[in-house]
Specification:
8 strands; 196 residues; 15% strand; globular; two-stranded antiparallel sheet; Aminopeptidase; alpha/beta
């Protein structure tokens, strides 16, 4: 899913990839520690037994072990890249299910942004009339708390940024994965030329 897409993009765009080594159900690093969604007790309608009734000490331990090292690494790499004279671009990649609470989702690719929409705007403009149904801030948006990584690492420093959501039925096989990854790489590279 998302990690495979991110790996393809990292290679295609010659970018650095920082990723979680664990399921987002254990800790979703794209949520702040105080958010219930960081360690959700449910995923859609399914209980997550390992997350039920976590004590404050257990939540703190997970945050220290999983969230803090991830974001420290992202911060370190951004500082290194900026220190080399380059302007970092922050792209986060996620997948979503084609059906949520019994309702089909028509969107195939979501291009999400917070208050800085430069990169998203350029990508959406390039995606118009393309082979996929691409929508702004869908199936989630900043009001859902999903832009935490962008808020933390990109917005304060004015770095171009975007969050990409891909419907996971489109990347269930190698052909789909390659097609989506190539499409996204083209969208991103073309958009970066316009916002640079």
């Amino acid at each position: 899913g998302a990690l495979q897409i991110a790996r393809h993009l990292s290679i295609s765009l010659d970018g650095l990839l920082v990723h979680q080594r664990f399921s987002r159900l254990i800790y979703d690093c794209n949520r702040p520690p105080e958010s219930p969604a960081a360690m959700p007790e449910k995923s859609e309608i399914y209980a997550i037994p390992g997350n039920l009734n976590l004590s404050p000490a257990e939540r703190y331990a997970r945050t220290a072990a999983l969230y803090v090292p991830f974001h420290d690494r992202v911060s370190t790499e951004i500082a290194r890249i900026a220190g080399e004279g380059a302007k970092p671009v922050i792209v986060t990649v996620h997948t979503f299910t084609p059906v949520y609470f019994g309702k089909p989702r028509e969107v195939e690719i979501g291009i999400l942004h917070d208050t800085d929409s430069r990169l998203a705007d350029a990508m959406l403009e390039a995606a118009a009339g393309g082979p996929y149904r691409v929508e702004r801030n869908s199936p989630y948006g900043p009001e859902d708390g999903v832009t935490h990584t962008l808020r933390l690492h990109a917005l304060p420093q004015g770095f171009a940024n975007v969050m990409i959501e891909v419907r996971n039925d489109l990347v269930r096989d190698e052909a789909g994965l390659k097609a989506i990854s190539a499409y996204l790489a083209d969208l991103i590279s073309g958009a970066l030329e316009r916002v640079a």
